[in-house]
Design a protein that fits this description.
Length: 347
C-alpha cells in the first residue's frame, strides 16, 4: 500500500477546542483536549451523548490540573450529566489516567480490551524508586554512554502510578470485530498492534466516523518501541501488519477522531504514509549498518534530527524496534562490545 491515493488527507485543524471547552465535532459527539507535560502537549478525549448519560473515549492523565479541568467541564458545559461509561483505546497513561477516578467517584463502567485492562492494572503496581537492573542492562546494551547511564541509575524513573489513578477490579471486555452501541449508533471494533498491544479502534456503522486513538494520527507517526520488559519484541512487524489490515476497511470519506492532533479525512492515504514512513526508515537503517553501530548510534539515521534528553527514551525504543525487525528477518546480526553494548551490522 503506497501513499499516492487520489484522496488527500484533509485536516480539520481549525476546530481545536480550548482548555475546558466542548467542541461538537459531529451530532452528539464532543471533542475535548487535556494538557500533557511533554513535547506532544495534549491528548484528545471524546464525549458522546449516550443513553442515560455520557460515554467518554479515553480520559487524559491523572494530574491535579487535568482533574480541575474535568471538574469545571462536568459542572459547566456538561451540566452534571452522569458519566455512564469510559471506553479505553489502549493502556498508555495519557489515555487511561483518570479511568479509575471516573469509575470510583462517578460510577462509570470501564470498557477495554483485556490486554489494556491487565497492562494498566499491572503497571500501576510496578512502582520503582530507581531503575531496575533489567532496565540498566537494556540501556547499556543499546549503547547509552556511561555518564547518562550513571545519572539514570540514581534518579526515580517514570512510574505509571504517578499519573494514573488506581484501576478498579471490574471491567467490561471489548473484543475484536464485535459491535458496540454508543450514542445511538453501532460501532464495530477493530484491534491493532504495534503502538500498544490490543489497541482498540471503533468504526461507526451509521456514519463515516472512526474513533482512532493513537492508531491513526494525522501528521505524526505513533511511537513503535521496544523496552526492557520485552527486549526481543518485534512491534514494528505487528504495526505494519495492522496497517495492512486497516487499509482493507479504510475509506477516504471517513472522519478519523484521533488521540492527538486533529481530526481528518483521507485515511487510506494516511495509512499509506504510515507504512512508507517505516519502510523508508528501514531502508536508511540498512545503509547505515554497513558499518557496525549501536541502537543509539542509529538515532540520526532514523529520525534525521538531534534527539534531546526528554525524547531519548522514546527514540531508544523506536530504534530498537527497527533493529529487531531486521534481526527477525535475518538481515542484520549483532555482537557484544566489551562494554556490553550490542553492535548491529548487515549480514
Amino acid at each position: 500500500m503506497g501513499s499516492n491515493s487520489s484522496e488527500a488527507i484533509q485536516p480539520l485543524a481549525g476546530l481545536s477546542p480550548s482548555e475546558g471547552e466542548l467542541k461538537e465535532i459531529a451530532e452528539g459527539i464532543f471533542w475535548l483536549r487535556f494538557p500533557l507535560p511533554m513535547a506532544l502537549d495534549h491528548v484528545n478525549v471524546f464525549a458522546i451523548e449516550d443513553e442515560g448519560g455520557i460515554t467518554l473515549v479515553d480520559t487524559g492523565l491523572d494530574t491535579r490540573k487535568t482533574r480541575a479541568i474535568w471538574k469545571r467541564v462536568l459542572a459547566g458545559p456538561m451540566g452534571n450529566t452522569p458519566i455512564r461509561r469510559v471506553i479505553l483505546t489502549h493502556h498508555h497513561p495519557d489515555h487511561v489516567g483518570l479511568a479509575g477516578w471516573f469509575a470510583l467517584e462517578h460510577g462509570a463502567e470501564i470498557w477495554s480490551t483485556r490486554t489494556t485492562w491487565l497492562m494498566a492494572r499491572m503497571l500501576i503496581l510496578d512502582e520503582q524508586a530507581v531503575p531496575t537492573a533489567e532496565s540498566l542492562r537494556f540501556y547499556r546494551a543499546a549503547g547509552m554512554d556511561e555518564t547518562s547511564l550513571w545519572k539514570r541509575s540514581k534518579n526515580r524513573p517514570f512510574n505509571f502510578s504517578d499519573v494514573v489513578s488506581p484501576i478498579p477490579l471490574g471491567y467490561r471486555r471489548i473484543r475484536d470485530r464485535e459491535s458496540i452501541r454508543i450514542g445511538g449508533s453501532d460501532w464495530r471494533v477493530a484491534i491493532g498492534n504495534g503502538h500498544a498491544p490490543d489497541h482498540a479502534t471503533f468504526w461507526c456503522q451509521n456514519h463515516p466516523l472512526i474513533l482512532g486513538g493513537d492508531q491513526f494520527l494525522a501528521d505524526i507517526s505513533p511511537n513503535i518501541g521496544v523496552y526492557a520488559t520485552e527486549p526481543d519484541a518485534d512491534p514494528l512487524d505487528e504495526w505494519l501488519e495492522s496497517c495492512e489490515q486497516f487499509a482493507k476497511i479504510a475509506r477516504p470519506e471517513q472522519t478519523v477522531l484521533p488521540g492527538h492532533r486533529f481530526p481528518y479525512t483521507g485515511l487510506p492515504s494516511r495509512i499509506g504514509q504510515l507504512i512508507d514512513n517505516h519502510r523508508g526508515a528501514l531502508k536508511r537503517l540498512r545503509l547505515h549498518l554497513r558499518n557496525p553501530a549501536t541502537a543509539v548510534d542509529c538515532f540520526h539515521t532514523l529520525f534525521r534530527r538531534n534527539i534531546d534528553e526528554a525524547e531519548f527514551g522514546l527514540a531508544l525504543g523506536e530504534s530498537m524496534a527497527h533493529l529487531n525487525y531486521l534481526l527477525a528477518r535475518g538481515e542484520v546480526e549483532r555482537s557484544r562490545r566489551e562494554d556490553g553494548a550490542w553492535l548491529w551490522s548487515l549480514q
